[in-house]
Amino acid sequence: MSLFSNRVERSDIAEGDHIYSWRTLYAHHGIYIGNGLVIHFTPPPGKLTASNPFSSLSSSSSAPGRGQQRTCPNHPRCGSRKAGSGVAITCLDCFIEEGSLNRYEYGVTSSEPLLIRGGGGRTTKQSDPASTVVRRANYLFENGFGNYYLVWNNCEDFALYCKTGIFVAGVGRSGQVATYISACGIL
């Protein structure tokens, strides 16, 4: 990792890391729990509709088969989720898809830039210990994280909560929407 990129190799990630993968217009976030598995937050299968302009942004094909249960030869737990829940477990390959693997940085000093070239994440907030992060992610896998909304309850919010235990209500607390607006040239 460098000042200009949060890109990492698979061998560089550890349990409890907040990772993300760049897709066409956005980054998809999750928590690496070890053994080649990631817990992340997406809309539950069947919750995407053609009338939702953000449906292609709010899901990833790492969410099982766009409404179907995913069959993955890489890991038997890949595609696991509780009925109606947006919290899923996938293998690292399915999480990354065709994107790049990146790690979100915590505890960045205020003198370092928070946004890096190509978007991506850094925060001055401190991460809890990895065991706490993984325990939180597993708890949310079992119990859910509420309804998925691109603007105020998305995959980045899920990962930030797992890492810090802090849930900030309101629009724009994570970088997902800012990244989308920037990528589309809206502002």
Rg: 15 Å
What is the terminal separation in angstroms? 29 Å
Q: Beta-strand percentage? A: 5-15%
Q: Main beta sheet: strand number and arrangement?
A: 6 strands, antiparallel
Task: Give me the number of helical elements.
Answer: 4
Domain LRAT: 18-176
InterPro entries: LRAT_dom (IPR007053)
Protein name: LRAT domain-containing protein
Organism: Rhododendron griersonianum
Question: Main traits of this protein?
Answer:
187 residues, alpha+beta, 6-stranded antiparallel β-sheet, 4 helices, 6 strands, disordered C terminus, LRAT domain-containing protein
Describe this structure as you would to a colleague.
The chain has helices at 92-96, 130-143, 155-164, 176-184; strands spanning 18-22, 27-34, 37-41, 80-81, 87-91, 101-103. The protein starts with 17 loop residues before the first strand and ends with a helix. It is 20% helix and 15% strand. Helix 2 (130-143) crosses helix 3 (155-164). It contains four helices and six strands, in the order βββββαβααα. Strands 4-5-3-2-1-6 form a six-stranded antiparallel sheet. By secondary structure, the protein is of the alpha+beta class. Residues 18-176 form the LRAT domain. This is LRAT domain-containing protein. Residues 50-83 are annotated as: Disordered. InterPro entries: LRAT_dom.
